[in-house]
Amino acid sequence: MTRSLLTLICIASASAALLGGCKPKAGASCKIETKEVCNDAKTALVCHDGKWEDMTCRGPNGCTKTGSESVCDQTVAEDKDVCNLANDYVCSGDKKGMLECTKNHWTFVQACLGERNCVMESKKVTCDNSIANTGDACREEDDYACSPDKKLAVVCRGGKFTVASNCKGKNGCRVTGDKNSGFKVECDDSIANIGDPCDKEGHFACAPDEKQIVKCVGKKFAADDKCKKQEKCAVKGELVGCY
User: Fold this and answer.
1) Are 29 and 53 a contacting pair, CB within 8 Å?
2) Rounded to two decimals, what is the model's pTM?
């Protein structure tokens, strides 16, 4: 039995088979690391560690081919998708998360629940995490955010958002400013219960019943002074007192 040279090439190596128009298959051997080959308009094969593996092209351009070169648009991705550029960042499809290419797979690194969500501008990914849940992953130590219900200020500690302070005042937790002047998280903690978490050591507030002043000591509000019977605790300007 005889076989053509082209047939032998296709059997021996999927990467070499491209020269004759044969398509590689996932799991077959390849020689050019990180090379991409379009499967169809939305998927590709990529060469990793000497083997072809499937890769999804979720970006608006899908998978495009120019001459012998194929490009898989991964400007949008989902957690655990195969990726091809280490330490690259993209947004998730719903714009509420940012992912990083780690060990050839996209990995969710932080939620982007703020008003601007996750956007890619001039090939740079910006994640608005000014709104965050306690326990959400974060990347910048001492970064502050408001909880979705605006009742808490949370802070990034050790890669996770944790409660910084309750915001029981009438203004709750607010995100102010803009991308030019910078964004700021403001927590109205002028009202607090004894034992509530706090982030500003020595800061004073009024108890909800207005009968006493409380003070932030050791990251928690503690009783400081009781108001006289005819007085009420109130905040006037920057001062907390019994009036």
Assistant:
1) no
2) 0.80
